[in-house]
Design a protein that fits this description.
alpha+beta, three-stranded mixed sheet, Muramoyl-pentapeptide Carboxypeptidase, domain 2, four-stranded mixed sheet
């Protein structure tokens, strides 16, 4: 192959696979922003000033995959996790696993969640173990799905303890909503009683077969935090007919495609609120 043909080949490849010319400054942060505590912006487009790290182990919980540096949160969230795990211990659930919260200064992840940007979201795994995980297991844990997607029902891994986990979290006044797979919500609705008013906060969403995603309300003192619309009154079980149809369509589409999975490209960076700029100004200057 001549030099000219080699150059032409490289140029053609670059046109198909363009280089990632952007750097995500939020992923560069390894320390918190030493400012007033504030959740700034919306859950899916914002940042976090004055974050606190959640201790990697606590009374009734362990943080998994700490190498990702996603164990930071608003002080309200850190306090919630600590209090919640102690509540579960009193219910006989002695060890829960805390997944992604936020990065040291909040902001957008390159991969994974679109939300978790202002320190008020936390993933809590539904996997329960008798004994704590060992250090090497914490870095690369195996998830446990409690859902049978094909049969549209919970599987044998589901237990009453999972319902307890959801109920205890939902009854906390700080909690705005909890995202789970629609199949989990359907199972809870099938068993509901008139006393289960907490079901209102259990929101069906894609994925979430192996963890519950807890979201706190904007703190009253954080004027720059953008709250979501309130959830409609009622248990929300009537929405699940639509969700069942969507799950069936998605399963049929996947069966038809059967394409091998490819590595996802980093998500495009969003324009952040102006109040977020100081949090990454120094980080950008260091590049």
């Amino acid at each position: 192959m001549t030099r000219l043909s080699t150059i032409l080949l490289l140029l053609s490849l670059l046109s198909i696979y363009p280089l990632q010319a952007r750097t995500n400054p939020w992923e560069l942060a390894t320390s918190i922003y030493q400012g007033q505590v504030a959740a700034i912006g919306g859950y899916a487009n914002g940042c976090l000033s004055g974050a606190q790290p959640l201790p990697l182990t606590g009374d009734g919980y362990q943080v998994i995959r700490s190498q990702r540096q996603r164990f930071y949160g608003h002080p309200n969230l850190v306090n919630f996790v600590s209090h919640y795990s102690k509540q579960l211990t009193q219910q006989g659930i002695n060890n829960i696993f805390i997944g992604d919260m936020s990065m040291p200064r909040g902001g957008q992840f390159d991969f994974g969640h679109s939300s978790h940007q202002i320190g008020l979201d936390v993933d809590i795994w539904l996997k329960l173990t008798e004994a704590p995980l060992k250090p090497q297991e914490l870095q690369n844990p195996r998830h446990l799905s409690v859902v049978d997607i094909d049969k549209l029902t919970v599987n044998q891994a589901w237990s009453k303890q999972h319902k307890t986990m959801l109920k205890v979290a939902a009854e906390n006044n700080q909690v705005a909503r909890i995202f789970v797979n629609p199949i989990i919500k359907q199972h809870l609705c099938n068993e509901r009683s008139d006393k289960d008013t907490w079901l209102q906060k259990i929101r069906p969403w894609w994925g979430h077969t192996s963890h519950m995603h807890v979201r706190l309300h904007c703190p009253e003192t954080d004027s720059l935090c953008k709250a979501q619309q309130p959830i409609k009154s009622g248990h929300g079980c009537e929405e699940l007919t639509w969700w069942t149809q969507q799950l069936k369509r998605a399963a049929a589409s996947q069966q038809q495609a059967k394409q091998p999975k490819t590595a996802a490209a980093p998500k495009p960076l969003k324009q952040k609120p102006l109040s977020c700029e100081p949090l990454v100004k120094n980080l950008q200057a260091k590049q």
